[in-house]
């Protein structure tokens, strides 16, 4: 039996399940499909007034995919009130594989040369699955989340999956829905061609942001791979050989196009305008 790899993980996301572990040093990985699911509606994403003032002031240099591994490690680290983490080393390696082929992304807040907050998640067609966030400065992870929401809105993403409902996410308008309702929303999102690398501007037009995409590379290759995975989920379980060949071919197509070290392409004010236009 072949080892569980990133292509298998992408299949899992297309079916509405995600990985977790009991502890950082526990090598076991569990696949979770909760009865109740937290989602952040992008049409109606709420930015509290105080945070909006902070975002508009651009207190951090917001970057995309410039330090993906560092963000994952920061999310996996223990901290005040959190002695254990669900991100073990096998899960960490799976996300690094997904990042390599353009399906896992980080949004980062920098203060000079210091990474002070951020988040990461997985993109698949019209869905984005938020995985974890961290903050070393006040509001840093919240600023990253606002920029993520603006980017997803501009790129035509339909679903922002938050996995579980929390008080922290409730301030942004998060909702808790049933498993059945979540799977319906996911199915609809997988029919859409969302693009993480396309950001709308204040006039409503869109442009490729933070990427150097040649024909067939970068975002286009990621969308093509995502379409194949989503169609496989709808049609039934693809063969292991079929998954491997599709995923392997995508690595070549994406290698020259996956953006790293890119600026967020929108200011805080522009991000807030995009969010307001979607409400």
Structural commentary:
The radius of gyration is 18 Å and the shape is globular. It has one domain: Aminopeptidase, CATH 3.40.630.70. The chain has 279 residues and is an alpha+beta fold. Strands 9-3-8-7-6-5-4-12 form an 8-stranded mixed beta sheet, sandwiched between helices. Strands 1-2 form a two-stranded antiparallel ribbon. A hairpin with a 2-residue loop joins strand 5 and strand 6. It has 10 helices and 12 strands.
CATH overall fold name? Aminopeptidase
* Gross CATH architecture: 3-Layer(aba) Sandwich
Count of alpha/pi helices: 10
Shape: globular
Helix content: 40-55%
Strand content: 15-25%
In what order do the strands lie side by side in the largest sheet?
A: 9-3-8-7-6-5-4-12
Largest sheet: 8 strands, mixed
How many runs of DSSP E, i.e. beta strands?
Answer: 12
Order of helices and strands: HEEEHEHHEEEHEHEHEEHHEH
Helix-and-strand structural type: alpha+beta
Helix and strand layout, with pairings?
Blueprint lengths: L5 H9 L3 E3 L9 E3 L3 E4 L9 H8 L4 E4 L3 H9 L12 H12 L3 E8 L2 E11 L2 E9 L4 H15 L4 E5 L3 H4 L4 E4 H11 L8 E3 L5 E3 L9 H18 L4 H15 L7 E2 L4 H11 L1
Parallel strand pairs: 7-8
Antiparallel strand pairs: 1-2, 3-8, 3-9, 4-5, 4-12, 5-6, 6-7, 10-11
Helix pairs in contact: 1-4, 1-8, 2-10, 3-4, 5-10, 8-9
